[in-house]
Amino acid sequence: MTQLTTAPPQQPTDVGRALRTAQLPTAAPRLVLAAAIVVGIGVWLGTGTPFLGVLFGWLTCFVLPIASAFVEGSRKATDRLVTVLVTSAFGIALIPLFSILWEVLRRGTQVLGIDFLTFSMRNVVGEGGGIYHAMTGTLLITGAAAVISIPIGLFAAIYLVEYADGNRLSRWLRFLVDVMTGIPSIVAGLFAYALFVIFFGEGVRMGIGGSVALSVLMIPIVVRSSEEMLKLVPNELREASYALGVPKWRTVAKVVLPTALAGIVTGVTLAVARVIGETAPLLIIAGATDSVNFNLFDGRMATLPVFAYASQRNPGVPPEFSIERAWGAALVLLVIVMLLNLVARLVSYFFSPKGDR
Amino acid sequence: MFAGISTSAGLLILAVLAGVAIFLTIEGIPGITADPSEVKSGQSFWPWVGPLVLGTLIAAAVALLIAIPVSVGVALFISHYAPRRLGQTLGYLVDLLAAVPSVVYGLWGIYVLSGTMAPVYAWFEKYLGFIPIFAGPASATGRTLLTACIVLAVMILPIMTAICREIFLQTPRLHEEAALALGATRWEMIRMAVFPYARSGIVSAAMLGLGRALGETMAVAMVLSATAGVVTANLISSTNPSTIASNIALSFAEASGKSVNALIASGLVLFVITFLVNFAARAIVDRRKEFSGAN
Lengths: 357, 295
Description:
The complex is a heterodimer of chains A (about 350) and B (about 300).
Chain A: H1 2-5, H2 11-19, H3 28-47, H4 50-61, H5 63-71, H6 74-108, H7 114-118, H8 132-163, H9 168-180, H10 185-200, H11 207-232, H12 235-243, H13 248-276, H14 280-285, H15 304-313, H16 319-351
Helix pairs in contact in A: 3-4, 5-6, 6-16, 8-11, 8-13, 8-15, 9-11, 10-11, 11-13, 12-13, 13-16, 15-16
Chain B: H1 2-33, H2 45-81, H3 84-99, H4 102-128, H5 145-169, H6 173-181, H7 186-215, H8 218-223, H9 244-251, H10 258-287
Helix pairs in contact in B: 1-10, 2-3, 2-5, 2-7, 3-5, 4-5, 5-7, 6-7, 7-10, 9-10
């Protein structure tokens, strides 16, 4: 008994040493992050360049793996180094996003106003003018592209899910649709030109050609998203419908499509958002003009992206006003795209069937 | 009848894809066979398109080199480092980059990024000038090939991140837990369980990104002050090779006669290159049956 009570008191700590190596305190990453922010802001204020501030703040973060190498050994140090690198990769990806949003907002709002949205560029030299002609053009061309793409894409998706039964044609179609999503937009524009030039002769410029080019880009997106949504419709619904003696086409039209509608609308909206900002194909086939043109089948048609591009490219003298308008058009375009994305998310959030998914 | 409409819609899509190839070929062939005196460049087709192809490949390759580590890092951050609840929101943030129209990227590249990068290029020239790609003389405006490549890298980041993220999230949970239970740190777990599982996915993500970068037009056309017929590996000087897509965008409006056909033929070359790259990428993706989503 007495011997036991006088057991050496160091033993437990010795066992502990053997099992646990030294560790940095749990708060170490947070402390280093705080230090990095302080250093970053300090350098920024000291040198006046935010770039150097970010750079030195970032470099400060590497104190953590270095300290870890001395205290915790190389394995832990590598782990901490990778954590710093992976986190900074995410930070690097966010820099352009926020920089773009900030610059477009800052420079675009300078010219924004009622006049900018309701005037065209007809007979405008220097200051003034607006993007009315480009907005109508964008809406018309994208609208026509949607009218062409949605039925084709939706029916192709119905074919893939409801009728194909995994035959060889459907496997090739699915694969080639995936490949089609990677067609460069300018190639789609050249295709539309090559198609129209056969009927209308050289130098053809037409709004509807832009719609055809955008459709080439839009159809694969519609097919893929609609297909995913149709696949989500439970088979029990179809079978219940068949059991009631409903023919297949009525089942698809009255049961499958309404069930998948919210998802399809989301997919189509995202597809529209995707093509509405396309510049290259419209530059080729729709051209640019300063006047309002409501006729898709007659002559050049201005669009927002091409307007922004042309204003930057050929600003005239003095250039400031034109470049200001380019940023204004970019802002309007960005707002439209973001709104479409928001609408798509809201539709899928509020209208998708509430089930046990 | 419903079945008929659906099937013909499917066939129509295949016809469109074939039509792209056919119409480009019909209109392109006169450009390929055109006499040097008939086109604006004053060169026969292949010597003219060669430097453009090289410029396209260089720009896309450099963009890819920048984008691969960043996108793998971002995907890892979202899938394995960020708190689970935050992951999806952070994913949306990166996806927002995909929503930005290319012309906005172009404006940003010219007026924001070029200005920021110009002093960096001067620094590169001064201290890294012994490396051929940084030989200089550094462009004062910053509108260089490297700037265009950075813009391209940002543009292809979302799709590559989305695919990598999907694949990383599909790593079998048991593999990860087994690695951690054996005492691996988080990085060792990722290296031993996640990366081997995701290798083919990363490759196909990179190839899809490459396909996008090859065909991207406006960012390069706007940012780059290109000189025709230049072949150079120098990334920071003011003489830059053009790319096929940007060359078409810049010269199509003023082109006429056989020059138009030559431009269409160069578009056909671009179509073939991107088609092959995308075809290979999708074939790799398709081989993994368990892969789903993220297109």
